[in-house]
Specification:
heterodimer, A: alpha+beta, four-stranded antiparallel beta sheet, 7 helices, about 35% strand, B: alpha+beta, Cell Cycle, Spindle Assembly Checkpoint Protein, Chain A, five-stranded antiparallel beta sheet, 8 strands, about 30% helix, globular, Mitotic spindle assembly checkpoint protein MAD2A (chain B), HORMA_dom_sf (chain B), Mad2-like (chain B), cell division (chain B)
Amino acid sequence: MTQFLFEADLHGLLKLDTPIPNAPPARWQRKAKESDPGPSPAFVSPMKPANRSYSSSKTPSKTPGKSGSKIQSTPSKAGGDRYIPNRSTMQMEMANFLLTKENDPAEESPTKKEQQKAWAVNLNGFDVEEAKILRLSGKPQNAPEGYQNNLKVLYSQKITPGSSRKNSRYIPSMPDRILDAPEIRNDYYLNLIDWSSQNFLAVALDNSVYLWNHASGEIIQLLQMEHPDVYISSVSWIKEGNYLAVGTSSAEVQLWDIQQQKRLRNMTSHCARVGTLSWNSYILSSGARTGHIHHHDVRVAEHHVATLAGHTQEVCGLKWSLDGRYLASGGNDNLVNVWPCTQGGGGDFAPVQTFTQHQGAVKAVAWCPWQMNVLATGGGTSDRHIRIWNVCSGACLSTVDAHSQICSILWSTNYKEFVSGHGFAQNQLVIWKYPTMTKVAELQGHTARILNLTMSPDGTTVASASADETLRLWRCFEMDPIKKKEKEKANSAKTSIIHQSIR
Amino acid sequence: QLGREHQGITLRGSAELVAEFFSYGINSILYQRGIYPPETFTRVQKYGLTLLVTTDPDLANYLNNVTEQMKEWLYKCIVQRLVVVISSIESGEVLERWQFDIECDKTAKDDNGPREKSQKAIQDEIRSVIRQITATVTFLPLLESTCAFDLLIYTDKDLAVPEKWEESGPQFIANSEEVRLRSFTTTIHKVNTMVAYKKDSVP
């Protein structure tokens, strides 16, 4: 339909004998309007003439030209000229009105008054008899010249000028493999992929979970929800890689045995979908849409051993630290909470730290593997910042603006870097050097926002799941073979010392 | 300050709370919508959140004037609405309109006892509204051109216009989409928040 309107517009513009839509009214028109101040506004700009005609009939009760008139200050150009230095502070229409209006009041019948009142209420949104609108004059200085609204720049970024720093290593810009992930749910708050230490990549596609064996390439469908409306909201492998925890939209946390492809447990303790899971040896922590985090001891029948209430909205990020001392959680309420592994004096779990600096939902939460007590967090669309924290002191060690929604952060020990996954506008992965926080590389290829990232057990490959229904595997942390040998030598040297002491 | 928590809410206390909310709310809108450069804002802790307020002295002064005036009018229960109008500087077109409706319980002026509502509960409600304002950036259309803002206050008809203020029109948006945000109440004043933005002409 819009193409007809467009055509009509074009024709309207090209015709030279139609009346000019926004011209100031001719004198004879104004006189006609004032002698008959009925509600017949030109429909092109309904507010201006109606206001004028209304106020002209109201002036008799007050001193003419003063408080009865309504001002609409519509500044035109910010720039000025010699005669009028600053057009935006001039009130052209007010001045014009005052100069041209006639002073004699018009007679009106009661019905006309009613009609006008109805129009006024309609146009102004309230009864003008009851209230008036005030505006503080002397507007503050506008943003300086040349200030371009930042948001426009970052939300319309197409291609960033690439980071000019040369990498000392080669990072392939194309993914190693692309896997199909049909029906993957495009929901920012879910955590749908995880890679086990046995090299199985678990992917939740709507109501089924598939396992992809990285070594052999074979695909197994592990499970499918019985109820068609229930979907999987999170998956997480236990450290040993033989059990998979699955969180569902029906608030269940299920435990599956991979060898036998059987469900071992179905733990129900939440009342809303379980969007995130994290293991700490035999304790499985789950975060739900209610904002509650439950600890489950999977060895015992009474699995629900603790509740952590620190969020008022959906918990979307949950990670135990590698030494198991702290649990970091991020929620849709923009908070990051750091919980201790043991209860406080009162028997209640209270966070040792709460960080409020993020201005958006915090889904990306990751602990630094080589530095104690260092946590990285990333914010959603409203925030777009990556922050690094020391959880003991509570200090924010560094912040960097990533210009895009952050869905996940993964640290890499091989190169002391971390990778972050992003959404609009480039849907890229960015590799950052720590602690200098400089960009090492940007990996592009996804055509829709990235939802999750997970790392292979050998630490060389990162898998990204995206709303474009693909999984891409990026071999970005490949170890140099020489460096690899050195690392292995260092590791083996350590073990031999241990052996000696045991003897 | 400690005593306040137990005393309950008085009319003056409520007026202060609401005026304070407006000050932080307007600052947040100016930051989130990019009306002023983000470097001119600094972070402060308020309501258990990290909020951004301007460091520009002229702007801070301007906002202070408004806040002080609002406090007085809220105390007298004669203000009905506060509107933040965001318009393009070149074309003068109104692009966005943030409307805060205020319902005042006039009986609070008469009875002398404070109302029962904890500061914490009010803070929680205010926190939700401010978080929603921050989150609106995810759906509000981009402000393409450099914009300026205007503050309009709807007061009772017979109020004497104080110095520095002038009467104005409502500055509605011609073709708008409206979104209602959360509201909060101090039991004396209730504030409803709503944002209207220009509907995109090209679907």
